[in-house]
Amino acid sequence: MSLDDDKAQNVTVIDLKGKTSFADYMVIATGTSQRQVVTMAEHLREKMKSNGLKTVPVEGADQGDWVLIDGGDVIVHLFRPEVREFYDLEKIWGEPGRQPGGRLRPDRKAPARRGGREMNLTIAAVGRMKSGPEKSLWDQYATRLSWNLTLREVEERKPLKGKELMEREAELLLQAVPDGAHLVALDRTSKSISSEDLAGRFADWMATGPQEIAFVIGGADGLHQSVLARADSKLSMGALTWPHMLARCMLLEQIFRAQCILTNHPYHR
């Protein structure tokens, strides 16, 4: 049983080699209904297991709007038509020859989406991420996010320490923030919020707020007061101390989760 046997539509294969470390290929296909999407996912999972894969994780099969099948070297995304158009993974990966449509325009209705403004997100962080588990985790969520995302990494090469280093990092971080962006400072002393609350903030920004949102993550000693004073809002991810590179991945996961909450995607349970 294959996608062709299940009458999948608009099947696209994207070569990921050299672009990311989490898979070699991405397959995107469309089913005309939730039932067809779920059936395709079940048949594909059975086929992968019969070909020797011991475990084949599947997400989203309980609803059938967007089902992800993790085949190891091959990641398969199965969509209903309007959900595929909304997330537009072909555009994210720059695949030529994709089906017409693209990201939904503000005057068109996205599935269960609040508001209609396109979001441009920037994450400005101290330090440069190298190849490894954290980079793979980042790539997974960055790939699945439909909002425009830019990572701007800053690093002071001079051997500065203490207050002097924090001041210099603050300068570099503020330079990385796009003009006119709503600046969100990650500050552990601020009030923690739930994932649903964060989704609510995004809903407000999409409805009437700024289209440019910049999240700023400081270095080992946190953010300098100059950044906190410039911030339009603050966000705490709790009082626990996390590895610096993992913290930005956790932030990105929460942004992706907020998107899923707003689109009623089954990722958030």
Q: How many beta-strand elements? A: 10
> What would you call the shape?
elongated
Proportion of helical residues:
25-40%
Query: How many H/I helices?
Result: 8
Mean pLDDT metric: 84
Our estimate of the beta-strand percent is 15-25%
Q: How would you classify the helix and strand content by structural class?
A: alpha/beta
Note the gap between the termini: 31 Å
Topology as a string of helices (H) and strands (E): EEHEEEHHEHEHEHEHEH
**For the CA atoms, what is the radius of gyration?**
20 Å
Across the major sheet, the strand order is 1-2-5-4-3
List segments where confidence is low: pLDDT < 50 over at least 5 consecutive residues.
95-116
Structure summarized in a few sentences:
The chain is α/β, with parallel strands linked by helices.
Characterise this structure:
It is a single chain. By secondary structure, the chain is α/β, with parallel strands linked by helices. It has eight helices and ten strands. It has helices at 34-50, 81-87, 89-92, 133-144, 162-176, 195-207, 225-230, 244-262, and strands at 9-15, 25-30, 58-59, 66-70, 74-79, 120-126, 148-154, 182-186, 212-217, 233-235. Helix 4 (133-144) packs parallel to helix 8 and helix 6 crosses helix 8 (244-262). The radius of gyration is 20 Å and the shape is elongated. Mean pLDDT is 84; it is low at 95-116.
